[in-house]
Design goal:
With 488 residues, the chain is mainly α. It contains 19 helices and 7 strands. Helix content is 52%, strand content 4%.
Amino acid sequence: GEGESLLDAQEMYVPSLATILLAEDNAVKYRPQIQQLIKSFEVRQQKNGGFTYKHEVDIGDMSQTQFVSLALFVAKHNGIKINPDTAEKTLRFTVLSQRQPGHWIYKVQGANPNGPFIPQNSDIPTSSMLAAGLSTAYLLADVLQLTPKKKDMDRLAAGEGLVGLPRSVSIYIKPPEDAAPGWSKDGPLVNFNMGQLQNSFRAGNFFIEKNFEISPADWTFYYLYALERYAWFREQAEGDMGTGSLATWYDKGVTFVKSCQKKDGSLVYEKGNQQESPLRGTALGILFLVRSSEILTLPSSDSELLGGEGFPDEALNMKDGQLVGSGAEKDLSEMLKMLDEDASPEQLEALSSAMKKAVQEFKNKDNKSRAEIKVFLRTMVAANNYFRRKIAIRFLASEQDMDNVPALIYALGDTDFRVCIEAQDGLRLVSRRIDSLTVTEATRKNAIRDPGVLTDAEKNAMRLDFNELKKKWTQWFLGIRPDAKLLD
């Protein structure tokens, strides 16, 4: 079947990307499938620690090793058991396959896990393999907890104006009971030659700084995708990217990618060697632009509350303001996922109350700042799902915090008038202007109706009403906070 062919693939790209996709979509639901894929990696690992095509023996393919390593990181980040020995062997291969004076090449051969490894073909440096090797070395050092974090990259998501960007809270999964011994402990998970690792970092960093280019002719967008990952993990481990040409790597990359965009939206580097199709180049270019490593490494919600495998009617019973009737623990993000499906008004109210408790728990965690939870809620205001937006607005209003006003004003322009009226009521609550800046009686009545039964005339009248309110609320807020930054 399809599952069998995936586990038995000729190359490692597809199973690695499948692991990432399943883990990012729902690591709880797809845990068995992810575990199968992780097990297949262990079986496919070469004696030398690298990964390659199925028909090859004693070969280490840096390109495929890079993607397996990324899959291992994502699995571990989402609470899935992986064997530290697998990651350690991969890191050792990565370090020992580095060439002099500090670059990596596509393929090396050799059966001994301690090397030496010799080039299968050319030993000529390429930017794409240099970025692949460096990013993999830093990433696996992070997986194995070998390098203390000098910069908390998770906090970067706590800035202003992030509505519409990737979510700032990802799934938290309690470590499985069958996790490998010591997997959750602090500090290094394996014994590794740290001098050798640091020498690899230094040589690679020196080489890329000396030879840095943002638009190599070979595998250009593939290179940018790996470059972004390298920069993310290096900055996390060392604090910055230095003061040389690498310091402005992202700005240079954005300028370059913009220059490659065609009228149909695709990304094509016409001066490149055209190994990448427009579709593949566009996908990889987007991953660079959105800082895909940030998306993969977003912090867990670290919040637990009651819930079942889903939210059937019988499970959504409230007692003293809390959700009762189910025994399994669910985190905040898992509850948000339940909103992807339609719910009755009663279910929505129960879910809202339960989530409010979870958000409060999230706030009270020592390692979570107030800014982080606000960014999370503001991001919800721009979510695709109506229920998510509505609940986010309720939370923002219930805090009665003036810092939340820009998100509520933003929501007055929502395409769903049920969200608009929720935002309007939230603004009145936060501002305490209960008797002013009100909607017309007709707008309030129509805004809570099923959008499917509204006439065009009713929709147009409401839109005019909410647009006017948005202007007035904006004027009011800027009068209080002239330097405030609005969200649109």
